[in-house]
Specification:
2 domains; 21 helices; Rossmann fold; about 10% strand; alpha/beta; about 50% helix; single chain; N-(1-d-carboxylethyl)-l-norvaline Dehydrogenase, domain 2
Length: about 500
């Protein structure tokens, strides 16, 4: 068993693919904030594959984080020279490779001084982020910038010692402007419709609170390309560490992933970019169509199955797809209520994409927990489910199944499964959701009164009446009875 490091790469088992490039000769070009599993299995992998072709050696990644808990990841990665073992979980067999595109990790410190200065250096031309859908300080009511959040209030008052990634970006861009270095590209890699537009809104709006001239400079000179990212990447635990050890490598933070990736990017990079398309990414002027397909069908599909899965104590997403009622719910809602509002892209028709997602969700090798997928419903339901409801109401297509999905989420947020076991808090606003779910048990309309999630949907009888029907049935007869009733219709 070899502990992963530069020194042991050459002696790892032949079954593990390792970097063929000289990592000592790599130089930085990208700072990536939010070094979770998804980044290491997705964006880092694309860059690594370019490097394997002898390309992009001046675009290596410097990792970063802005919260104290990021220090644990920094420490573990530093101990293994920032290498990551990726384990592909194909139903036909697994494989492993070591990715070496990351070469450093900025120290985690209060005020983010080291991060600001690293982003201010001229070699950094892209600052990328994976900070989750709920991490962009969006006002849930207006979808605009939330200037009232305590972290934003702090960063506006103390721009030289920010708490947030966006405050650090603003401070770094100020230094670059003042030093005559020029802008960098801000690149969101999160599951948000128009994620580049959202990132621009957050960065420029925050800058405007303390330095309007700087905000104008950023808005004029920086670019924020939209992108769609896709790869199912479970959380890492003892099982994943054991998988890596089974290949003969001791990696403290390996990453498992499915045998599918997709990255569609708007080609808008003010300071250059790697040729990611040579590693399989797609540059497109119509990212929106790809985003809509993926967010509605895949991310929306995750919400369709994860809440009933949790309520029925089904632990994994593949287990949900093996459950006859939950898988049938997925099929019917996707094909009748989500797919009609999705347009084809060059690679897929909506029908073919639903088939693809069904196969991906059903992969038994991917141990992706229903709990992980159900996390942060207060961001994911309004982002992934509500748009399909609104389209259905506007176009006269069914919304009954989506009303059931919303009712299942309301029941999930009560905090107990149908077997009586407790659901541990699983949302940044869990206490608020649990309180509202308790009210909705006797008055279902209370749940739809959350305007920051549903807007005016409580005033739409076709949706609101169906929601009330389903939540009442769930409480009176149970989740399986509600699912069966919907499927029998």
């Amino acid at each position: 068993m070899k502990t992963l490091s530069n020194a042991t790469l050459a002696s790892l088992p032949d079954a593990i693919t390792v970097p063929t490039y000289d990592r000592a000769r790599l130089s930085a070009g990208i700072v990536h904030i939010g070094l979770g599993n998804f980044h290491r299995a997705h964006q880092s992998w694309y860059l690594h594959r370019l490097m394997q072709q002898g390309l992009a050696h001046s675009w290596a990644i410097v990792g970063a984080g802005v919260r104290p808990y990021d220090e644990d990841m920094r420490r573990k990665l530093a101990a293994q020279d920032y290498l990551t073992t990726l384990i592909e979980l194909d139903p036909n067999g697994s494989s492993a490779e070591v990715v070496g595109a990351m070469i450093d990790y900025v120290p985690i410190e209060e005020g983010n001084g080291a991060l600001i200065e690293r982003m201010a250096q001229p070699d950094i031309r892209i600052v990328a982020l994976t900070v989750t859908e709920g991490g962009y300080f969006i006002d849930p009511a207006t979808k605009g910038f939330d200037a009232s959040h305590p972290d934003i209030v702090h960063d506006a008052a103390q721009p030289r010692q920010p708490r947030t990634a966006f405050g650090a970006m603003v401070a770094a861009l100020k230094r670059r402007r003042d030093r005559g270095i020029g802008p960098f590209t801000g690149q969101s890699c999160d599951n948000l419709q128009g994620n580049g537009h959202v990132l621009r809104q957050t960065v420029v709006s925050l800058a405007r609170l303390s330095d309007p001239e700087l905000a104008d400079w950023i808005n004029t000179h920086c670019t924020f390309p939209n992108a769609m990212v896709d790869c199912i990447v479970p959380a890492t635990g003892p099982k994943e560490i054991a998988l890596a050890q089974g290949f003969g490598v001791d990696d403290a933070v390996p990453v498992s992933h499915e045998n599918f990736r997709q990255w569609v990017i708007e080609d808008a990079f003010c300071a250059g970019r790697p040729d990611w398309d040579r590693a399989g990414a797609t540059f497109s002027e119509d990212v929106h169509a790809y985003e809509t397909m993926k967010i509605r069908i895949l991310n929306g599909g995750h919400q369709v199955i994860s809440d009933p899965g949790e309520l029925l104590s089904v632990e994994t997403i593949s287990g949900c797809m093996a459950h006859p009622l939950i898988s049938a719910l997925f099929e019917k809602v996707e094909r009748e209520e989500i797919m009609p509002h999705v347009h084809a892209v060059p690679e897929f028709t909506p029908e073919a994409y639903v088939d693809l997602i069904k196969a991906r969700f059903s992969n038994p090798k991917i141990i992706d927990t229903t709990r992980r997928v159900a996390f942060d419903g207060s961001s994911r339901h309004p982002g992934f489910i509500v748009p399909s409801i609104r389209d259905g109401l506007a176009k006269g297509t069914p919304v009954t199944g989506l009303a059931l999905v919303s009712a299942l989420w309301a029941r999930y947020c009560l905090g107990t499964r149908e077997d009586g076991s407790e659901i541990a808090p699983n949302d940044p606003f869990w206490a608020d959701l649990t309180a509202m779910a308790a009210k909705a048990k006797s008055d279902p309309t209370a749940w739809l009164s959350m305007r920051h999630i549903y807007g005016d949907l409580s005033q739409e009888p076709r949706f609101a009446d169906a929601f009330t029907h389903w939540l009442t049935l769930i409480y009176s007869e149970g989740t399986e009875a509600a699912l069966a009733a919907y499927l029998a219709d």
